[in-house]
Design brief:
mainly alpha; 16 helices; 0% strand; globular
Length: 441
């Protein structure tokens, strides 16, 4: 395809539009995901709905279970209705679900709202990654996707400020009403976001795809030679267990389980556990801001480090440093020192899981790579469900001081599993595609 300066400029503007809209959508995704953890200390202290620590852990797991459902069904739904419509639908779903939480008169309705929100949250992120991959400037997909991933942590920062500003003067329900505001963004997304080029090509809408690609000077994805049948997909899954591959596969799955247990356990319980350590609520919420600032920095650093030293090595080292940081949070230190530890923990924790996916992608055969990464992510989602529940059980049993220790042990386990898997693998990795290296959440 010829590329004039005018076309390139239009292509850059389109990429900026798509990335900007998807970034905002993922920002709202992060806000809705983290808002529960930000208001949780207040809910427990005021015994809202008669909430106890174990019930609070169950509620935290409802959202992550919904995310599991959303992530597993997003691809199938997107193949039917399109990436754009699915993104709009996810924004509408988790926004309305937050309204259900704001109106809830008991644990059951609140839990329903968090479950529905999780479905929307789980479906949006992989779809947004697919969208920005289609429209990223040539050779810049990895950078653009990394930028998109920072939006999730920016949403976590926003959730802490929403809680700090609204809970005392207005009440916790106001925080969830703020999470309904993205509903106003859905029509903007529907009007200005173009459909995914990959979807248009897959559906045989070649004239639309050609016209859009030519108009904005974006690269048209290659058409698939044929759709994979159910038998093909099951054969790809069986390939993960043939010969000696079953050991590698289970090690990757266990590493992913521990990684996402750690990510979502800390995301849900960080403010509450810091309150249990004696910090004021305002400081506990500030830790959420600092933690997510670390997550943004980590996303920008991890890829470069992996390119230089190798994804398996960085994943293992990152998990070791994460475990050390999380364990240190159980020690009451001065606020300034704690802030530094929280920031560094955010740096390593939020990108360590991404490096698991990078490792799996690098070590997998090209024709089985998508299946390997997808199932590693899926198995990890069970850890995401277990993490919030585990934190609640420890607090309910009067062992809140063990919360950080338990999460640190999850980090150690992931370090061990990914380290063993990397040492056992003798396959020289082919180069992986940009979009397969992301998706830590």
């Amino acid at each position: 395809m010829s590329s004039s300066p005018a076309l390139s400029a239009r292509g850059s503007r389109l990429a900026l539009l798509v990335v900007g809209l998807c970034w905002l959508a993922v920002l709202f995704d992060g806000l809705d995901m983290f808002i529960y953890g930000s208001v949780l200390p207040h809910l427990l202290e005021t015994k809202t709905f008669g909430l106890t620590a174990d019930t609070a852990g169950d509620l935290g797991s409802y959202a992550t279970f919904g995310m599991l459902v959303g992530a597993l069904t997003a691809g199938t739904v997107a193949d039917r209705i399109g990436r754009k419509k699915l993104m709009v639908g996810c924004v509408v779903l988790f926004s309305l679900a937050s309204g259900v939480c704001a109106l809830a008169d008991g644990v059951a309705v609140f839990g329903l709202g968090r479950t529905l929100a999780g479905v929307g949250l789980g479906g949006l992120l992989p779809t947004a990654i697919s969208m920005v991959s289609d429209y990223a400037p040539r050779g810049r997909a990895a950078i653009v996707i990394g930028l998109l991933m920072t939006a999730h942590h920016a949403g976590g920062i926003l959730s802490a400020y929403v809680a700090k500003w609204l809970i005392d003067p207005v009440g916790w329900r106001a925080a969830f009403w703020v999470c309904v505001v993205p509903l106003l963004f859905a029509p903007v997304l529907a009007k200005f976001l173009p459909e995914s080029l990959s979807f248009l090509v897959a559906k045989g809408r070649n004239q639309e795809a050609d016209a859009l690609a030519a108009r904005y000077d974006v690269e048209l994805p290659a058409a698939k030679s044929g759709r994979r049948t159910a038998a093909d997909r099951w054969d790809a899954l069986a390939g993960l267990f043939r010969g000696g591959e079953w050991t590698q596969t289970l090690l990757y799955w266990l590493a992913s389980f521990g990684g996402l247990l750690l990510v979502y356990g800390v995301a849900t319980w960080l403010p509450t556990l810091m309150r249990a350590e004696g910090y004021a609520l305002a400081n506990a919420l500030t830790f959420v801001v600092v933690f997510n600032l670390g997550g943004i920095a980590g996303m920008l650093v991890a890829g470069r480090a992996a390119d230089r030293f190798g994804a398996p090595r960085i994943s293992a080292v990152w998990f070791a440093l994460t475990a050390a940081g999380v364990y240190l949070l159980s020690v009451h230190m001065s606020t300034s020192v704690t802030m530094i530890v929280v920031f560094l923990t955010g740096v390593f924790l939020n990108s360590a899981q991404t490096m698991i996916y990078a490792t799996v992608s690098i070590r997998s055969a090209p024709d089985n790579r998508a299946t390997a990464v997808g199932w590693t992510s899926g198995m990890g989602r069970f850890g995401a469900v277990f993490g919030p529940w585990l934190g609640g059980q420890l607090l309910a049993a009067g062992h809140g001081d063990w919360g950080f220790t338990a999460f640190a042990l999850a980090g150690v386990s992931s370090m061990v599993f990914i380290g063993i898997a990397a040492l056992r693998s003798a396959q020289q990795a082919p180069r992986t595609t940009d979009q397969e290296l992301v998706g830590a959440h």
